[in-house]
């Protein structure tokens, strides 16, 4: 395996080579750059591969410019089993013609005994309508490239045999909490909680798979624009959500981890069943000891790239209100689940070229229209440069999350809890995406299986994205936290404390379940299948264990509470004017 930066790597076997997620050019309005810098690698050689795997369409994984210029068009694309055709369409537009359309969780044997399996995640909140992981086997040696996918568990991969190298994300890849208009102390506290939770989730995945070698990948990016420089983790801020690979090494060691290796761009790991021998282009510890100097050198070298990108964003000929109405109102008319989930108006404050004038536009979800702001109360408010929205409209961008929001070039405030439907809608600004997301939410079924967690009986699957709560659920008093994404639930009421909706079925242990309408006297719904009559699976997870992960004791970071300016619709027991947050 050759490290090629961020989530990218090249896997070489006697039966062929696989290039994964090559990302070099800046992403998200020139905000994100790979770090360590990988632009000086010999991409002509690296791109001459037999197979190409792109995990998903996030622009720090799908670099269209680089794919077009450097990756061989004779390579066979290992295509995840996504619900829309967007990835294939985009790759075909770049000149790729050979595709292996995989089936999710199905092993495919390629020429020469090389085997691959791709697990596709297809919730509307998984990347831009999909994320995936790649499992590879050759001659009994197995690799799992999980990158930044978040499956509910790794059982499928574990069942295929012992994994010798596990590559997975550990660092942040989001805009929260940095962009929120909060007191600095609150922002730092929320950031620390998120940073801790990121490590907890990573350690849990590592413990689940128990691979011989662990390789931290898929982050963090670096921020080279002067406006975003403060997001780099070089200031000793415990609330920074972008810890680097060397910080991971230190945190992993705290929970007993001794089997991790950092791959710099150009590092090569020779992997066998019994060993992993790695050669590096430079001393890894020494490199990260001088991280700030490396970033400052990159900032000066990449400044012309950022300036050139900024010069393309302004489109004064575009009437933003008119174009937003044209693009968004037809989708609002068709939306049922997403519009209802948002449940209120969302406001965009667009700052003019002069840096002072502001045009406020509202996307009114209940009213199904885009209009000028009319001084009403709004659920979410985003403040950004008008030029950025002009550019999104000019290029007819269908995913504002995979562009504007991930750029961190905006400020946000909100009333009440985090609302996933806001961001789900703004990544679905096309007919195909919207119809898929609406259908996905329509097909969600209640989870019929109950489990015992501490002193409570709860449904087995998290209402958010169906994580198995026997693995990810932590009970502390009357609160359940699902550690996969940090969502919290009030057990006495079943109410979600993190977001709107997503109620949990819960009751104290020892109390009978309520009889449902149309059920027989045992409480079983008429016509319902019962796998194990009266069965409740027990997973003893209580307050005494709430601070430990399966990897051996890292603190279980929760979601934050107390967003300034929020309404009293937040967490039970939280101070008035506060709400829990999870993003």
From TrEMBL:
Keywords: 2Fe-2S, Iron, Iron-sulfur, Metal-binding. The keyword Lyase does not apply. Residues 458-497 form the Rieske domain. Coiled coil: none annotated. Residues 503-529, 547-583 are annotated as: Disordered. Residues 554-563 have a biased composition (Gly residues). The keyword Iron applies. Residues 516-529, 564-583 have a biased composition (Low complexity). InterPro entries: RibonucZ/Hydroxyglut_hydro (IPR036866), Rieske_2Fe-2S (IPR017941), Rieske_2Fe-2S_sf (IPR036922), SCP2_Rv3818 (IPR057330). This is Rieske 2Fe-2S domain-containing protein. It comes from Dactylosporangium vinaceum.
């Amino acid at each position: 395996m050759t490290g090629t930066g961020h989530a990218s790597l090249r896997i070489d076997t006697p039966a062929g080579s696989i290039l994964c997620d090559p990302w070099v050019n800046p992403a998200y309005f020139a905000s994100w750059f790979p770090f360590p810098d990988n632009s000086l690698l010999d991409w002509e050689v690296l791109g001459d591969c037999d197979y190409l795997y792109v995990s998903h369409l996030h622009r720090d994984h799908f670099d269209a410019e680089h794919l077009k210029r450097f990756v061989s068009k004779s390579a066979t694309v290992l295509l995840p089993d996504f619900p829309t055709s967007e990835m294939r369409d985009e790759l075909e537009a770049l000149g790729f013609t050979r595709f292996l359309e995989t089936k999710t969780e199905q092993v495919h044997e390629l020429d020469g005994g090389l085997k691959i399996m791709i697990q596709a995640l297809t919730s509307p909140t998984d990347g831009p309508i999909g994320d995936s992981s790649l499992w590879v086997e050759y001659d009994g040696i197995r690799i799992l490239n999980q990158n930044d996918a978040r499956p509910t568990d790794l059982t499928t991969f574990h069942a295929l045999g012992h994994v010798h190298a596990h590559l997975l994300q550990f660092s942040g890849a989001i805009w929260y909490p940095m962009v929120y208009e909060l007191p600095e102390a609150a922002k730092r506290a929320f950031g620390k909680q998120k940073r801790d939770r990121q490590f907890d989730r990573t350690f849990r995945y590592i413990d689940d798979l128990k691979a011989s070698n662990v390789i931290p990948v898929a982050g963090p990016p670096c921020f080279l624009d002067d406006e975003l420089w403060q997001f780099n983790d070089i200031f000793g801020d415990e609330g920074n959500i972008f810890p680097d690979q060397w910080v991971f090494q230190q945190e992993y060691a705290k929970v007993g981890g001794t089997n991790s290796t950092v791959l710099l761009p150009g590092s090569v790991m020779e992997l066998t069943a019994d060993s992993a021998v790695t050669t590096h282009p430079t001393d890894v510890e020494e490199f990260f000891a001088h991280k700030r100097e490396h970033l400052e050198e990159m900032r000066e070298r990449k400044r012309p790239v950022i300036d050139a990108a900024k010069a393309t964003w302004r489109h004064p000929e575009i009437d933003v209100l008119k174009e937003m109405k044209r693009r968004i109102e037809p989708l609002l008319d068709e939306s049922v689940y997403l519009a209802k989930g948002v449940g209120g108006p969302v406001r965009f404050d667009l700052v003019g070229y002069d840096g002072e004038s502001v045009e406020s536009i509202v996307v009114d979800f209940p009213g199904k229209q885009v209009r000028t702001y009319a001084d009403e109360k709004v659920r979410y408010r985003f403040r950004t440069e008008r030029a950025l929205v002009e550019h999104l409209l000019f290029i007819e961008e269908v995913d504002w999350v995979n562009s504007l929001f991930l750029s961190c070039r905006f400020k946000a405030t909100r009333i009440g809890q985090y609302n996933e439907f806001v961001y789900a809608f703004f990544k679905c600004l096309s007919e195909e995406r919207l119809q898929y997301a609406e259908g996905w939410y329509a097909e969600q079924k209640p989870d019929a299986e109950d489990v015992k967690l501490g002193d409570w009986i709860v449904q087995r699957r998290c209402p958010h994205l169906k994580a198995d709560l026997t693995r990810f659920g932590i009970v502390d008093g009357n609160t359940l936290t699902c550690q996969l994404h940090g969502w919290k639930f009030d057990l006495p009421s079943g109410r979600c404390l993190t977001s709107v909706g997503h109620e949990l079925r819960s009751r104290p242990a020892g109390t009978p379940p309520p009889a449902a309408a149309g059920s027989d006297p045992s409480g079983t719904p008429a016509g319902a299948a019962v796998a194990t009559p009266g069965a409740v699976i027990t997973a003893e997870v209580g307050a005494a264990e709430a601070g430990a992960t399966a990897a051996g004791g890292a603190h279980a970071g929760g979601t934050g509470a107390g967003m300034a300016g929020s309404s009293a619709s937040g967490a039970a027991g939280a101070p008035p004017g506060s709400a829990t947050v999870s993003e």
